[in-house]
Design brief:
The chain has 371 residues and is α/β, with parallel strands linked by helices. Helices cover 39% and strands 15% of the residues. It starts with a strand and ends with a helix. InterPro entries: MYG1_exonuclease.
Length: 371
Amino acid sequence: MWAITRGGFNQKIFNLPKTLSRPLMATSNVIRVSSPSYSTSSPNHAPFKRVGTHNGSFHCDEALGCFMIRLTDKFSNSEIIRTRDPKVLEGLDAVLDVGGVYDPNHDRYDHHQKGFEEVFGHGFNTKLSSAGLVYKHFGKEIIAKELQLGEDHPDVHRLFLAIYKSFVEAIDAIDNGINQFDTDKPPKYVNNTHLSSRVGRLNLDWTDPDQSPEKENEAFQRAMALAGSEFLESVQFHARSWLPARSIVMECIAERFDIDPSGEIMVLKRFCPWKLHLFELEAELKVEPLIKYVLYEDERGKQWRVQAVSVSPDSFESRKPLPAQWRGLRDDELSKETRISGCVFVHMSGFIGGNQTDEGALVMARTSLKM
């Protein structure tokens, strides 16, 4: 995790894979979070750039934005200056979340000014925060370093979009006060476990007797470390897991008619996270008819699963659940009811079932399609 010092924080133990710790070495530099009176003109310090953001209470977007921008070649080893003084901000190399200007040509990335409506594009319409602005302009560089590919490589572009969708967009939306659902009804429960809430709780408590700028800057250092570590974990996941899984699912979709003439049954040759990929690839490839069942081997139990595809990624409703008369039955009782040998179970909701063999699972899926 991070060792906090008076001068900043140094990387102590981050538990990142070697491919991540190597290209993203900007995280190992001392990050100096300073008040505007801090001088960088000392002959004992090599010149480095200065990135500004506002002081006072902080949010997830500028904490993440400051972390991300330091992963770039242009702003590695940069100092973070926290101030609202326009004269100080004017002299800095980059400014995030303050200053009332969005001008990427001059590295100004504020989103609070009247008339600001910048979005990520590529089908995304959520108004950007300072984190989204930094990611929009520097995200490909960061990802390309991790993959050791050029920024124009298709895999870099795929991860660029996927990480925005799964990680950055929520931070943009929360910071801009955009509800997750189009409804006037109050939420059924409160969720204060997301990253933006956890970063917010790192602000100085009003009961803390020390409300000094130094104490506030130390808290912002911790906010940068928290937001940045989760961002890097997201990059790691997408590079190591998401991208290979997408290739597997694409190949299995292409072979679905070899499994069953209906084209509505897909078999995973190797289990991987498939659900989000399936929905995205069905839309991208204009798959018709939609896939109803996905078969895969449960490597722990060495049995096969028949899983009904849900109507949407976040839905518990299946496109075609397993037959009602099978639900809740197990083993011999289920095999007798289905007239299929080797049956193991069917869930009460019909979203998943099991068989001892791949052949048996396929028969269960084919029979379900006709019922």
